[in-house]
């Protein structure tokens, strides 16, 4: 494996980390600001002034930059399947950080994603 490919995989990993952290932060922030009033300009205003939502959006921006750097070093067909790891990590962190219930069927789905990642990573 070349140095360029290793760098590419590092940027893929950073993309995934920033995506997952960003999703969790946005969810935590929205739990604080959302109410029963549905979608409104007030809700959007509260969200855009919440530090967790803003932090999550900043993580998404950093993830985008990391993704661009990853794609400058790797083929899209090689890099993109690894984005499925974000699904695995979000599902694993949801019960821990958000106290969400995760059904057995969702865990089976994650196992299918992992199997697909394993297959896609093989030559």
Low-confidence stretches: none
Order of helices and strands: HHHHHH
* Count of individual helical segments: 6
Distance between the termini: 13 Å
Biggest pleated sheet = none
Give the topology.
Layout: H1 3-33, H2 41-47, H3 51-71, H4 76-79, H5 85-97, H6 104-121
Helix pairs in contact: 1-3, 1-5, 5-6
Please name the defining characteristics of this protein:
123 residues, mainly alpha, 6 helices, 76% helix, flat
Written overview of the protein:
With 123 residues, this protein is mainly α. Helix content is 76%, strand content 0%. The chain has 6 helices and no strands. The longest helix is centred in the first third of the chain and has 31 residues, at 3-33. It is flat and about 50 Å long. It starts with a helix and ends with a helix.
């Amino acid at each position: 494996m070349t140095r360029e490919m290793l760098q590419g995989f590092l940027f893929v990993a950073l993309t995934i980390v920033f995506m997952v952290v960003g999703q969790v932060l946005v969810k935590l922030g929205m739990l604080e600001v959302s109410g029963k009033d549905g979608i409104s300009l007030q809700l959007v205003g509260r969200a855009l002034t919440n530090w967790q939502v803003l932090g999550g959006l900043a993580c998404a921006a950093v993830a985008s930059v990391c993704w661009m750097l990853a794609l400058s070093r790797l083929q899209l067909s090689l890099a993109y399947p690894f984005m499925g790891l974000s699904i695995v990590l979000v599902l694993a962190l949801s019960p821990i950080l958000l106290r969400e219930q995760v059904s057995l069927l969702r865990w089976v789905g994650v196992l299918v994603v992992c199997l697909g990642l394993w297959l896609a990573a093989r030559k």
